[in-house]
Amino acid sequence: PCATTSSPPTPSHHLHQAIFPTPAHSAGIVPLVPNLTTFRTMTASAVMPKGPVCHDLIPTLTPHLDRHMLFPLLEFLDSLLAPRGDGVDSAPSLPPVPYTPTSVARSRLDLLGPTHMVDYAMDVYGQLYPSIGSVPAEMELKRAAVLDRLEELKGECAGIETLLGDTDRRSGMEGRGEWNVAGLERAGISEKMLESYREYSKFQYDCGDYHAAGNMISVIIGLHATAPGEDGGGQRSSGGVEDVVAAKAAQLYHLRTLTEDLSSLLWGKLSCEILLENWDGAYAALQAVRSSIEERAAAHSSFVPAAQRITALQALTQRAWLLHWSLFVFWNDPKRGLDRIVDWFTSEKYMQAVQTVAPHLLRYLAAAVVLNKRSRNGQHGLLKDLVRTIEHCDYRDPVVDFVDRLYIKFDFEAAQEKLVECELVLATDFFLCKQTADFMKEARVFIFENYCRIHQKIDISALSSRLAMAPDEAERWIVDLIRNASLDAKIDSETNCVVMGKNGPSGSGGGRGDIHRRIVDKSKYLTARTASLGANLKSVMAEAKRQKESREKALRDDDF
Q1: Which of 281-295, 358-372, 375-389 has the lowest mean pLDDT?
Q2: Higher local confidence (pLDDT), 511 or 281
Q3: How far is 497 from 504, CA to CA, in rounded Å?
């Protein structure tokens, strides 16, 4: 589908400022994302149903996402607001969200405005205003103008398209090392043609043809790339590509140099892969963008011109954007997504971005830690890092509060209450909705393990209330844990209690003995630390006294 010819908010002659507005550009350039008033209006015009508070993050995520990425989010809202029942216009059975179908449709129409998807916009307009019967004349004119421009760009890029279609000629150029900008110029492809090709890829992207746009971007990037190992250079991956398919896709990103134009093309390629739901390709692009950020932020880089480097603030902003985009990739990777989101979010530079720019991302980090088996299988560093971050951050929602109540305040009743709220929040979160059942299961295990660390004998009825489960259900759940050899305990049928073994819950480090060990570890250096603090305080006081005496002596000398 095609649509409007209106220029994007970031006018430019280059693809890198049109296909996608990277946060590399200074704050003076408005990013290509929907105006926040769109979502504020959408929320204000909706009637919030009575019931639990909705912790909706869509308006908060919006400033960090590309305009096109918001259409899947709106489709998700449509699914939440869709009537449920036997064809009856009944209220949604899912938790409430602060929107109405009409407000979502209006927001979608607003989002489509700066794009070229005019057919889609016409369909939305017709659904929103069925009584009018026809679309505005301006839409028809824009559609005609878009189609005309599309034909013009296609004609301007005919030479490149012909060369790309001649596989023998292209293979020969690649074999001779001529598949680059200079080689294309010798083959009759001028710089102006390449510029038109960039604009054509941008145009295809705004028309919603992400597959064609992605292929064109790959061609442009490939002109500046070299095969891995060909000359020992190329862009380096900051985190390593573990998957064979992703490694093959990553060959595209071994760049000979790195400029603002190429960096922005990497962002555009990532956007296309996400919208096409090609998650292996998206992860390879994600790694490439991450590497480009770090290389351009480095004080010294062998293949980044000095004029193309970015400031620390620009790098921080880009990392925050990348973390938001990574949510699409990680939460759609059932094999390694949880490990990757934890590793990325807890790395020093990206944790700094979370804490200073996007604290709301703590919801996704907390959910990933709870869902990640590494959190309990002897790797308590994950939980420690998360707890430390929560302690120094003001952001709160039920998912973050659950970890806070359980691991910081050790308030089991409050943790159970927050767990009930978590189920509602997860069900209305675009990225976490499919993880709701697994999160509830793993969260109950966390509650149970913590509870078992400080109790030797536990009443099943009391425990069931902590786990937000019926007593019979809780008993069956505990029996399953024992049967699967993940719990050193037994059930006393006479007293209806769980009796813990000597080792406590598996993976917890050993029941009450674990608590004793932790206390010893925390206190064994207490004397040395106290002595060190005393010495430091004595030194500070002596220095303050010396400075005071010096000032008094100077005053006496002035008097004489």
Answers
A1: 375-389
A2: 281
A3: 15
Is residue 405 a contact partner of residue 411, using CB atoms and an 8 Å limit?
yes
183 token code pair: 């080689």
The 3-state DSSP class for residue 504 equals strand
Cα 386 versus chain centre, distance: 16
Closest CA to 511 of 556, 449, 453: 453
Lowest mean pLDDT among 84-88, 253-257, 340-344, 505-509: 505-509
CB 382 within 8 A of CB 342: yes
Q: The tokens of 93 are what?
A: 């059975």
Whole-angstrom distance, CA of residue 47 vs CA of residue 43 = 8
Give every CB contact of residue 196 below 8 A, 6+ residues apart in sequence: 153, 156, 157
Nearest to 74, CA basis, from 20, 38, 119, 23: 38
- From the list 478, 516, 510, 519, the residue with the least C-alpha distance to 497 is 478
- CA–CA distance, 159 with 169 (Å, rounded to integer): 13
The residues with which 215 forms a beta bridge, in sequence order, are none
Q: How far apart are CA 288 and CA 237, in angstroms?
A: 6
Side chain identity at residue 456, one-letter code: Q
DSSP secondary structure string for all residues of 403-420 = HIIIIIS--HHHHHHHHH
CB contact set of 435 (below 8 Å; sequence gap of 6+): 331, 367, 371, 426
Rounded Cα–Cα distance for residues 325 and 201 (Å): 21
| pLDDT per position as a tens digit, 394-442 | 898 999 999 999 888 888 888 888 998 998 899 999 999 999 999 998 8
Cα torsion angle, 259, 264, 267, 269, sign: negative
Extract the runs of DSSP E, i.e. beta strands, from 402-520. 457-459, 487-492, 497-505
Return the H-helix or E-strand segment holding 39: helix 36-44
> 436 and 427 in contact (C-beta within 8 Å)?
yes
Q: Look at 274-278, 422-426, 509-513, 520-524 and tell me which has the smallest mean pLDDT.
A: 509-513
**Residue 538 to residues 167, 350, 532, 545, Cα–Cα distance (Å):** 78, 38, 10, 11
Contact 466, 449 (CB under 8 A): no
